Batch of 2 targets.
Target 1
Amino acid sequence: MSREPGVAATGGPITDAAVRSRSAVVRELRGGYVVEDVLVGPAGPGEVLVRVQACGLCHTDAIARSGLGGAGFFPAVLGHEGAGVVVAVGPGVEHLAPGTTVVLSFDSCGRCAPCRAGRPSYCVEFLERNIGGRGIDDRVAIRDAGGAPLTSRWFGQSSFGEFAIATARNCVPVEDDLPPEILAPLGCGFLTGAGTVLVELDLRAGETLAVFGVGAVGLSAILAAKARGAAEIVAVDVQPARLAVAERLGATRVVDGTAPDLVQAVRAGTSGLDATFDTTGRASVMAAAVESLGMGGRSALCAATDELTVRPQALVGRSLTYVREGSADPHTLIPELVRMWRAGAFPVESLVRTYGLDELDEAERDAASGAVVKPVILLPAAARPPGGPGVAAGPALS
Ligand SMILES: [Zn+2]
Ligand SMILES: [Zn+2]
């Protein structure tokens, strides 16, 4: 096995060296994903080198590729729903040992007031640590074959590749017998949907909820609402196929998002709902989500790019918030979602379709068209022995 100074051969003993990795690189704004040989690591202070088994494709990856990052963001390694196994830890990392299976979620500082209050998605350093792609200290975690730096701290992980550098804080340890394609999306998309219902809205048994936009985030919100014992779950979307999935997963009523009076269609003669959740970010739909609330109701948004205009009177006695990552603490909610999955109460496997690392462009197209709810990239490390745990071993949809 060839080995250069400071470069560990993949599969060999790994200490403080960089490792070779096949990773998907986006070279320029709106450029496609190209699989390249890159060098990942070594893990710096507080960091962890992870052999990635699976990484979900989240809508935010597509937004970054097509403009959020800006031209200076590229070349970059995206991917922020990684799951895999720790292979080396950097200085100062004490609670994570090599061999630990982890879900990679968003990064946070752990010291600011929101972090100390258990609301790390409102960390004062959230944007720098996650969206900026360069971390808090502008450190380079991945270099290309020529040694040039790549933007490699996307959501503290940049995990579209065989290896990734995460921070100890954004690694959530989990049991090692779970399918990686189920674990991976728990780090962002499913966390956001379930967290909004379970943490931010804190939906109670017997309450009513309407979810506007039922992609990966909206459908995981519906699963969480069903698990909480919601009396009514209204799914709103413009794609009949997605509404059919929502119904199968627990929506008690579906509404065509193109209905001429959307608020009236959602309220359906009632005095309004206890909670609403908009995942579309569209101005008219966000406003409808607020207007559909009954007195005392609470509404959450998570994806706005449009301006929002709301009648002040529509907020009388009601609340409206913009959630990040479902307001969840990944270290609390991800283990809870795993427990729910094992109990058959969070059956997300029907939403997942797996792809190879060289199929990211296709995966993004399939997500955009609505053909697939949650694409997950499987890396070679996900290979399981025959008869090992897999999606087929998960609970069946009721
Ligand atoms: Zn913080
Ligand atoms: Zn995401």
Note: Residues 1-6, 9-13, 386-398 have pLDDT under 50 and may be disordered.
Target 2
Amino acid sequence: MTDKMTLSKSKINTFIECPRKFKYRYIDEISEEANKYMLLGIEVHEIAEEIAGELMEGNEIDDIFLNLEYDEKLEEHIRGLEKFFHDIHSNGYEIFSVEEYIVDEDNDLNGIVDIVIRNNRNELIIFDYKTGSPRAIGKYKLELCVYKMLLESKYPELDVVSAGIYFTGAGEYRIANFGPAGADYFKSQSKEDIVDGDFDYVDGVVDNLYDTIDRNYYKKKRGFLCRYCFYKEMCDGDFG
Ligand code: SF4
């Protein structure tokens, strides 16, 4: 019997997008070439990690941005990060962790959480950075559920009360709350909730994914996204 695959939000999202794509990427291990959007995401994440690291060492936020070196094509994202870190700082949050890799053995999940901040009630708020255009929070609820599960597996004594996406280019938030919204700065940015049904949806997708691996049949999900798919040529010639 083969070992059960450990899942991540990227694996789950790829499976939802197209099971055949999931097979090419994660079963056959055919790596996708990084395109310019992926490279931008990597650069912005690296700079955000550097800034957060300096803040955690006690450096002044204005000095950090004054001395930051970056390619000018990143300008709007750097201004977005400046706003993000000023919001954290001026509203009394502290940075709890940055780019932390967590393995949740009970749920066969792993992942890296971009940044976690803590409020003065010792509650955690998760943020994931995205460099693309802002979209509604509904699209991201699954990955935010996965991040909460990961965080709470590692820190069971702490509550994750909200989770959100920060769009670095636009400087905009999309946030959902795990429970009633309070007076907290970030919670008050949002009226969205993540409820038990969202976690049930994650469980259902995960069950379906493991069933698919057992059956070893990965259905093609044809759609307009196929034209942008790295595996299109391979897929078109694959009649299995
Ligand atoms: S081309 Fe379409 S059907 Fe084929 S793997 Fe890519 S997304 Fe799936």
Note: Residues 36-56 form the longest helix (21 residues).
